[in-house]
């Protein structure tokens, strides 16, 4: 069970636009936006993208999210591609991780 995730990002504003778009199909909503982090919440996961505090560029983060149905998965995927996220493959079942 995940309590929350806090990926590091290099640009909080750009990340906010991305997360606003991709989390909406999953019921995610922005709760607040302090200077260095953005808060999002659904019924299952809390996500807090935070500004990277090192000189290194933000590193990629793999995040698995839960969706209500296949339509929400498709909407998430389409929103991610629309905002320019790197999408290595189309959504598909991953039986090694979850039954559906």
Briefly say what this structure is.
It contains 2 helices and 5 strands, in the order βαββββα. It has 100 residues and is an alpha+beta fold. The chain has one domain: 2,3-Dihydroxybiphenyl 1,2-Dioxygenase, domain 1 (Roll), CATH 3.10.180.
Explained architecture:
The protein is an alpha+beta fold and 100 residues long. It has a single domain (8-82), classed as 2,3-Dihydroxybiphenyl 1,2-Dioxygenase, domain 1. 25% of the residues lie in helices and 13% in strands. It is built from two helices and five strands; from the N terminus they run E-H-E-E-E-E-H. Helix 1 runs antiparallel to helix 2. It is globular. The two termini are 17 Å apart. This is VOC family protein.
CATH architecture: Roll
First-to-last CA distance? 17 Å
List how many beta strands DSSP finds.
5
Strands across the major sheet, in which order?
Answer: 2-3-4
Protein name: VOC family protein
InterPro entries: Glyas_Bleomycin-R_OHBP_Dase
